[in-house]
Amino acid sequence: MTRASFNRRAVLQAGAALSAAAALARPAIAQSAGRVVVIGGGFAGATCARELKRGGFDVTLVEPSAIYTACPFSNGVLAGLRPLSRQQFTYDALKTDGLAVVAQRATKIDGQQKRVSLSDGTILGYDRLVLAPGIDLRFDALPGYSEDVAQIMPHAWKAGEQTSLLRSQIEAMPDGGTVIISVPANPYRCPPGPYERASLIAYYLRTQKPRAKLIVLDAKDTFSKQGLFQAAWKALYPNLEWVSMSSGGKVIEVDVGQRVLVTEFGRHKADVANVIPPQRAGEIAALAGATDRSGWCPIDPVTFESRQQAGIHIIGDACIAGGMPKSAFAANAQAKVCAAAIASLLGGQAPQTPKLINTCYSLVAPDYGITVAGVYRPVNGVLTDVEGAGGVSPADSSPSFRSLEASHADAWFRTITDEVFG
Amino acid sequence: MKWVRRMREVCISIGLVMASSPAMGQPAVSPPAAPPGASSCSGCHAPSAVGHSIGALQGLSAPDILDALQAFRNGEREATVMGRIARGFSDGEMRAIAEWLARGDE
Ligand SMILES: Cc1cc2nc3c(=O)[nH]c(=O)nc-3n(C[C@H](O)[C@H](O)[C@H](O)COP(=O)(O)OP(=O)(O)OC[C@H]3O[C@@H](n4cnc5c(N)ncnc54)[C@H](O)[C@@H]3O)c2cc1C
Question: Which of A91, A102, A189 to mutate to test the pocket of ligand 1 (most atoms within 8 A of CB)?
Fold first, then answer.
């Protein structure tokens, strides 16, 4: 789409939003042209709601949970390096900002009437809607795996109780036992996450249960920061084995009774099985008609507006963000760009073409960090890596460089959670 | 976040445009929004970075920030991730980001 035609479209849409709001002759609904509802109070939604609120808009954040448990660094919790409480944040600071935080689940979206229904029956009107529901696990995608089985073979891919459950299983496992991590095909939340998890569990096992084994069964042949992870594993964790898809790593079924993960090539018995199943955008995105056949949400990369539902923007893990990974950093960066675009659209101005940054930190050991970074811009309607920029930490980094990246990881987590929830 | 204040000004100016447009349609002067890339910076750089290994940008002048960005890009200044990120920005973009970040501190 050319810049000029985009601008025209944006102006038309903003006009449509205003007249739709005016046409709703119900004063309780959509009173002002600046009414935004944000669904989901994670890294994406809480950031976006805060930015818009501070920008003077009438913003309602819908989030059922009173406490948000962050996934970044939750792998450290599994390894006993930090308590789960360090992952947890409330919405108190957002309320102090004057933001309306509604502790309900959004259950239905009417994009025509611009209304959101909540689980308690409340209906909220909006001029612009932001969906930031994160992921849902596809319990239908792996035979034998279900929400009930996740109580025995935790995914721990949404942090909280699942994290504590997996941690206690690893702690209770006898020395000499086997932990198996099953990793899905792309795309899923946090591309390097499973490998950071493998590293930190391996660190715990090496220090606490040196005879234990860790096997990673992967539905892929390549993965994020692969060279760096594998070099570190070779040096640090001889008991960690990674099985690629072509070597028979893809888990196709789960036998919970036997505690067995079934692959195309054989059966793997686990003492502790961490099954990370395939994923899709949080269900409310599908209910809004914003997902495509992939289960994720196609968006315009300038505004993060749905390609399928006018007036609805999708940010964070739920959207298809081209080259950007599904990360908390990306979710936060997208939220700020989306808030600025919504401010422009509601004001009848053309949103500016953005650039976005992502950096993903992973810990291989407590004092050993590695990173991947990227810079992105819209090219032909898709967020695309800026050529020549980005990439992973140098392979031949010194121990002090790795230790500095580990400190930066910690600083990053404190800064971003402070910006979003503090 | 200073962007936020600017956005509020944008909104106010938009309000003025809407209010005055039937009469004159004068364009209001909107303060600039965050230039491309700039709003990502606060994901890592805290307003005050006491006890953080990643430095704060508060108190730095625009020329200081621009110099640092250019030095990161051409490898003159040692970096963990900033070298990789700076390579994604032109001189013009860097100047705009530096000015915007420095203004945030006024
Ligand atoms: C083990 C692990 C490690 C990770 N490490 C990193 C890392 O080091 N760095 C990094 O950048 N990222 C990391 N991530 C990724 C990061 O957690 C996600 O990318 C990020 O949480 C996405 O943010 P989000 O706001 O899109 O979704 P979420 O953070 O999941 O937030 C979604 C919110 O929406 C709410 N919601 C859902 N449906 C509804 C509804 N119908 N109504 C109302 N509310 C609803 C949920 O309750 C939830 O609070 C990691 C992830 C994992 C699993």
Answer: A189
Q: Can you state the angle between helices A43-54 and A399-421, rounded to 10 degrees?
A: 50
Residue A172, judged by CB atoms within 10 A of its CB (0-12, 13-18, 19+), counts as: exposed
Euclidean distance between CA atoms B45 and B41, whole angstroms: 6
**What's the Cα-to-Cα distance from B77 to each of A138, A358, B83, B101, rounded to whole Å?**
46, 21, 8, 20
ipTM of the complex: 0.89
> Can you give the pTM of this predicted structure?
0.90
Taking an 8 Å cut-off on Cβ atoms, the answer to whether B36 and A412 are in contact is no
Amino acid B104: pLDDT: 81
**pLDDT (0 to 100) of residue B32:** 58
Nearest CA to ligand 1 atom 17: A71
Q: Output the CA torsion sign for A178, A195, A411, B51.
A: positive
Nearest-CA distance B16 → chain A (Å): 11
CA A14/CA A351 separation, integer angstroms? 11
| Residue A26 or residue A201, greater confidence | A201
Tell me the H-state helices in A56-179.
74-78, 92-96, 161-172
Beta carbons of A254 and A275 less than 8 angstroms apart: yes
Across A70-127, where does the E strand assignment appear? 88-90, 100-102, 106-110, 115-118, 123-125
- Return the amino acid letter for B36: P
What is the arrangement of strands in the sheet containing A272-275, beginning at the earlier edge strand? A240-243, A213-218, A178-183, A272-275
The residues, any chain, with a CB within 8 Å of residue A360's CB and separated by 6 or more, are A190, A191, A192, A224, A325, A327, A329, A371, A372, A373
As to burial, measured by CB atoms within 10 angstroms (0-12 exposed, 13-18 middle, 19+ buried), residue A376 is: buried
How confident is residue B48, by pLDDT bands cut at 50, 70 and 90? confident
Q: Which of residues 60-99 of A touch B (CB under 8 A)?
A: none
User: Which whole number is the average pLDDT over A172-179?
Assistant: 97
For A10, residues 6+ apart whose C-beta sits below 8 A from its C-beta are A303, A344, A345, A350, A351
- Nearest by CB: A355 against B12, B36, B43: B36
Handedness of CA A335, A187, A238, A233 (dihedral sign): negative
At B6, which helix (H) or strand (E)? helix B2-20
Q: What percent of chain A has pLDDT over 70?
A: 92
| Three-class SS state of A273 | strand
Residue A283: pLDDT over 60: yes
Q: Which residues of B touch A347 (CB under 8 A)?
A: 10-11, 14, 17
As for ligand 1, residues whose beta carbon falls within 6 Å of it are A 39-45, 62-65, 68, 71-72, 74-75, 105-106, 132-134, 157, 189-190, 193, 197, 282, 284, 316-318, 326-329, 331, 360-361
DSSP SS3 for A402: helix
CA A246 to chain centre: 27
pLDDT band at A8 (very low <50, low <70, confident <90, very high): very low
